[in-house]
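Memo to structure team: turn this sequence into structure tokens by end of day. - J.P.
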Amino acid sequence: MDQPLISALQRCVGWAFLVFLGLVPVIFGANVPLAWGINATVFGGLLLLYVAVQAASGAPSPLPVARLAVPLAAFGMVMGWIGLQLQTWTPAGMHAPEWARASALLGETLPGRISVNPGETSLGLLRLATAAAVFLLAVQIACDRAWAKRIVGAVAIAAALQAVFALWLAAVGPDTAGLVLPKSLFKLEQRGGLTGTFYNRSHFAVYMAFGLVCAWGLLSRDLRASLVDHGFNDRRDLIANIVGVGRSLARYSVLLMPLTLGVLLANSRAGVLLALSAVLVMVFFEKGQSSRGKLLRRVALGIAIAGAVLALGARGELVGSRIAGSTVENTAEARLATAAITLKAIAARPVLGYGYGSFASVFPQFRDDTLPLSGRWAEAHNSYLEALLGLGIPMALLLLFGFAWILGVCLRGVARRRRDRLAPMVAVAASLIVGFQVLVDFSIQIQGVALAFAALLGAGYAQSWSSRERSPA
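Reply from structure team:
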């Protein structure tokens, strides 16, 4: 195959990836089966096409498999375990006891599995595989610094458009919006705060926070490029710097203004605090050797840590009443009770788990009077505990280890790289947002958030290796 044709196909895959990445949240934040199927088909197809084009070129992969061995092994083993949880040929001693009870009640033998809800486990595996496809695509595409910047820019632009859309819905109202938009595909009412196309304002706020750190990273990069010695005399050099700074601010204010409004008007205090903390962490990562610069970095880090801790308490307010339809005010007690019940369920099957994504089927069996709210709980509001319950402790820890490895490489890239630090910094900032938020919520289980996060992690991971380190080991 001709090299110009190969390059053209690779660019097509790259641009298609950016376009579809921006479109992911359009259908209810990609939190419905229709969106899961579309995303799996699109991103799985793009990954296969990219691999085929790369193989036809005869050139080595931009980032060799050796550099991806640890996260690939971790995620591969976890996905293999989820597949095993769905099988009926596993030993009966491994099967969830619910299958035996159901067989006794029905008077017939049902094929048992480790998973208590094979349907939900299959969907969970589909979503996890889609996120892995997005990560792998982003890793290979973002080895080119220009494409890494485009991925960061695509998330910023998509989030800004979400913010503009949410502001427009709030301004015109659902009745007017329903005249021009299909009610079956969009969430037209913005109750209690902006939600855009997401069901939940907290998840919308996380997406806005992603966009904000991306836009801030791009602005900081432009500002550093503007504040250079232009070779003029003092006055002309000062004027050139002022013009450069003004141009950068004007360019990125188009993104920063709607994103800031989106974070603030989502009415999620945790979202605001985590977004602020993530931006301040990026300020801390900026390299400055002066004593004033070092002091600023320490202050920024201190405020970021305080903001993240405060976000954990702020996020919990009214979470239970929103989900369960209750007016109970002491939701801190409800959250602790939910966590305690989930831990009890984990202790009952600590190694095998109940099947990835099976929380809603398992929780009612262990629920007791310590939870003061009525209604059905579909999520644990703690993605770490939910992973432990579904996968079992060993595989859940392996999944978290895979994420931790990626984050560690990004931190290493931020610390060691002298240039092209944009994508690793954004990846670390996004990880801070998600890592704290999922302690009291489940945003990472929403594809609109999860796939954007996977793309940012992939871009950050790719740019954490220098061109010399990206050569085959």
